[in-house]
Write a structure and sequence with these properties.
Strands 1, 2, 3, 4, 5, 6 and 7 form a seven-stranded mixed sheet that branches. Helix 1 packs antiparallel against helix 3 (127-142) and helix 2 crosses helix 3 (127-142). The N and C termini lie far apart (44 Å). Helix content is 40%, strand content 23%. It has helices at 69-81, 105-120, 127-142, 148-152, 189-199, 205-227, 231-247, 253-264, 288-300, and strands at 7-18, 29-45, 51-54, 57-60, 89-95, 159-161, 168-169, 177-182, 269-273, 280-285, 305-310. The chain has two domains: 7-161, Ribosomal Protein S5, domain 2, CATH 3.30.230; 171-310, GHMP kinase, C-terminal domain (Alpha-Beta Plaits, 2-Layer Sandwich), CATH 3.30.70. Bound molecules: (R)-mevalonate. Residues 16, 20-21, 23-24, 102, 104, 142, 145-146, 148-149, 189, 193, 274-275 line the site of (R)-mevalonate. (R)-mevalonate (MEV) is lined by residues 16, 20-21, 23-24, 102, 104, 142, 145-146, 148-149, 189, 193, 274-275.
Length: 315
C-alpha cells in the first residue's frame, strides 16, 4: 500500500501580560505562550484544485473569502519560496484557539500553516524565515504588527519583547495564578491598532504618546515585580495598565464588565489582553482557590470560557 504523504505544523495561543498596543511603538511587552489553546494544520495531496478546510470556510483555496486573505498570502509566499506553486494540496486547520479574541489565532494559523507546508515538502524552515512569512500575513490581518504575536505563538518561553530588538526570555516564578476570561465577543485588533495610530497622530498626540510611554513604564516595573515574586504589585500594575488602555479606547463594555467582576471577586488586578475591543481579559489571583472563585464569577457574568494558568516554574 502506498504511504500517504502528510505535513503537519503546530502553534499555540499567546497571552500578553502587559504592553499591548504600546509595543507597536517601541515600548516593551511581556507575553507568554498559552499552550492550553492549540492550532494544528495538516497538509495532504489532492487530485483536484488546492483546498482548505477550517471553521470559517471549506473549499477551493483560490476562492477563499477576503477575511482569510492573510492565509492565502502565507500559502502563496511559502509555495513560491519552495517552488511548488502548482502543488495540489489539501489543507486542514484545526484550532482550539478562540478566533479574534486576543490570543493570537491569526498569527498561530500562519505559523502552523507555514510549518506544515515546509514539513510536507521535507524542507527546513529557519526561525527567521518563519517570522518573515508570518509578518506578511499579520500585516494583512492587523495592519501594523509589532511581531510579538508571531513570536509568541511559535516560541515556548515567556518573553520580554521590544519590537525589532533581540528578545529576552523570562522565567515566571510568581506565587499567583492567572485567570483568562473570554468575553465571547470578537475583538477588533486591526481597528484598534488603527485607532491608536490615529490618536498618536491627532490633535492630542502628546497626550496619547505619554499614555504609551506610561504603559512602557508599567511593563518595565512589572518585569521587576515578576523577578521579585511580588504578585500584589503586579496586580496593581495590571489594573493601572487597564486604565491606560481604556483611555486609548481599546477596551469594550464586555471587557470592562468581566474586569470589574474579577476585581469584585478579589483579583489582585485585571486588564484586557491582546488587541482589545472584545476578546479576552486576564486577572491575577493570589492562589488557585481564588482563581477558581474568579472563574465561577466570570462565568456567571457571561464569560464564554475561562482558563487558569499557573505562573510558577515556567521558563
Ligand atoms: C495584538 O495581540 C497585540 C497588539 O499590540 C498588536 C501588535 O503587537 O502587533 C495590539
Amino acid at each position: 500500500m502506498e504511504e500517504i504523504k502528510i505535513g503537519r505544523g503546530f502553534a499555540h495561543g499567546k497571552i500578553i501580560l502587559m504592553g499591548e498596543h504600546a509595543v507597536v511603538y517601541g515600548q516593551p511587552a511581556i507575553a507568554f505562550p498559552f499552550p492550553a489553546t492549540k492550532m494544528e494544520v495538516t497538509v495532504t495531496e489532492t487530485s483536484g484544485e488546492p483546498t482548505i478546510d477550517c471553521a470559517f470556510y471549506s473549499g477551493v483555496l483560490a476562492k477563499m473569502p477576503e477575511l482569510l486573505e492573510s492565509l492565502r498570502k502565507v500559502a502563496e509566499l511559502v509555495l513560491t519560496d519552495l517552488n511548488q506553486q502548482s502543488a495540489k494540496l489539501k489543507i486542514k486547520i484545526e484550532s482550539s484557539i478562540p478566533a479574534e479574541r486576543g490570543m493570537g489565532s491569526s498569527a498561530a494559523v500562519a505559523v502552523a500553516l507555514t510549518r506544515a507546508l515546509y514539513n510536507y515538502f521535507g524542507r527546513k524552515l529557519s526561525k527567521k524565515k518563519l517570522l518573515t512569512i508570518v509578518a506578511a500575513a499579520e500585516t494583512i490581518a492587523h495592519g501594523n504588527p509589532s511581531g510579538l504575536d508571531a513570536l509568541m505563538t511559535s516560541e515556548e518561553t515567556p518573553l520580554y519583547f521590544i519590537k525589532g530588538k533581540e528578545f529576552c526570555p523570562l522565567t515566571l516564578n510568581l506565587d499567583a495564578v492567572l485567570v483568562v476570561g473570554d468575553t465571547g465577543k470578537t475583538g477588533q485588533t486591526k481597528a484598534a491598532v488603527a485607532s491608536v495610530a490615529e490618536k498618536i497622530r491627532g490633535s492630542k498626540a502628546e497626550y496619547y504618546q505619554k499614555n504609551l510611554d506610561n504603559i512602557g513604564d508599567l511593563v518595565k516595573r512589572s518585569r521587576g515585580f515578576l523577578e521579585k515574586n511580588d504578585a500584589a504589585s503586579l496586580g496593581k500594575a495590571m489594573s493601572e495598565g487597564q486604565k491606560l488602555l481604556k483611555e486609548l479606547d481599546v477596551s469594550s463594555y464586555e471587557l470592562d464588565h468581566l474586569i470589574e467582576t474579577a476585581d469584585s471577586a478579589g483579583a489582585l488586578g485585571a486588564k484586557l489582553t491582546g488587541g482589545g475591543r472584545g476578546g479576552c481579559m486576564i486577572a491575577l489571583a493570589s492562589d488557585r482557590k481564588k482563581a477558581e472563585e474568579i472563574c465561577l464569577e466570570l462565568t456567571l457574568a457571561g464569560a464564554r470560557a475561562t482558563w487558569i494558568y499557573e505562573m510558577r516554574g515556567i521558563s
